[in-house]
Amino acid sequence: MKDLLKGKRGVIFGALDERSIAWKVAEFCVEQGAHITLTNAPVALRFGQVTELAAKLDAELIPADATSLEDLENLFTKSMEILGGPLDFVLHSIGMSVNIRKKREYTDLNYEWMKKTYDVSAMSFHKMMQVLYKLDAMNEWGSILALSYIAAQRVFPDYNEMAESKALLESYARSFGYHFGEKKKVRVNTISQSPTVTTAGSGVKGFGRFFEYADKMSPLGNATAEDCARYCAVMFSDLTRMVTMQNLYHDGGFSMMGLNPAVFDLICDEDE
After folding, report:
1. pTM score, whole prediction
2. How does pLDDT run across 82-140, given as a tens digit for each residue?
3. Structure-derived torsion over alpha carbons of residues 40, 89, 20, 126, reported in degrees to the nearest 10
4. Which pLDDT score, from 0 to 100, does residue 272 have?
5. pLDDT at residue 268, as a whole number
6. Is residue 2 part of a domain?
7. Rounded to the nearest 5°, which phi and psi values hold at 101?
8. Is 212 inside any structural domain?
9. Do residues 240 and 143 touch, judged by C-beta distance below 8 A?
10. Mind listing the pLDDT tens digit for each residue in 205-255?
11. What pLDDT does residue 269 have?
12. Is the pLDDT of residue 168 over 50?
């Protein structure tokens, strides 16, 4: 695979450190010929390593609070100036739950924190697309992606109110996908990724055990961040121009499994 994204311009949200899926996506997109800008919240820039990634990829880093319309307008306006025109792709890779960070159980949530979770993890996706739409910042046949998780459809108790956030995220992709498709033939999709060892994912209670469970349950095993980066690049490319308003499972087959005998071995090992 070479030059899959040659000449394309994009913005990558959410790269924090080398374990971030967005980090891997940024690296692979540039490897495939894309020119990008990187963005994250100002607070994230202080404890992350994204400045190192920007230097490595010769990409401009533009701080932006994804919940702020003003910041988003500045981000996309500057990105178009830096990259030389409208965008071909955008990745939303953002998620945060104060309730999870503060170890609040699902049956005892702080609702103000819940609102913050929804704003950062889901509403920011709608805000991002609304700003892109109003600025006419996307090229025809462009591609917008957000990273989701199967907890949007199924119960994973320790994922807390992030499950509802992902369900809302996927709904925004369908609804805004219609409007963007009608206006500019821009496609909007979500990718439901395997549990992945990232800074954010590892903060979920019991992550290690569930990661192993999902790996055993999936015929192909868990999809890595590098695998996800390649999938995102294909979704940004012209090879997938007719795919829109979809939630695409990228999980080694986990989403289709009812039972895998390999899981019995895991359960037995834990009992022993």
Report:
1. 0.93
2. 999 999 999 999 999 999 999 999 999 999 999 999 999 999 999 999 999 999 999 99
3. 60
4. 44
5. 63
6. no
7. -60, -35
8. no
9. yes
10. 667 787 888 899 999 999 999 999 999 999 999 999 999 999 999 999 999
11. 54
12. yes
Q: What is the 3-state secondary structure (H, E, C) of the chain?
A: CCCCCCCCEEEEECCCCCCCHHHHHHHHHHHCCCEEEEECCHHHHHHCCHHHHHHHHCCEECCCCCCCHHHHHHHHHHHHHHHCCCEEEEEECCCCCHHHHCCCCHHHCCHHHHHHHHHHHHHHHHHHHHHHHHHCCEEEEEEEEEEECHHHCCCCHHHCCHHHHHHHHHHHHHHHHHHHHHHHCCEEEEEEECCCCCCCHHHCCCHHHHHHHHHHHCCCCCCCHHHHHHHHHHHHCHHHCCCCCCEEEECCCHHHCCCCCHHHHHHHHHHC
Examine residue 216 and state whether it is found in any structural domain, yes or no: no
pLDDT at 264 over 90: no
Here the tokens at position 198 are 């990232």
> How many domains in the chain?
1
Domain-located, residue 131: yes
Which CATH number does the domain housing residue 149 bear?
Answer: 3.40.50.720
The tokens describing 112, both together, are: 């103000």
User: 31 is in which domain, residue-wise?
Assistant: 9-205+223-256
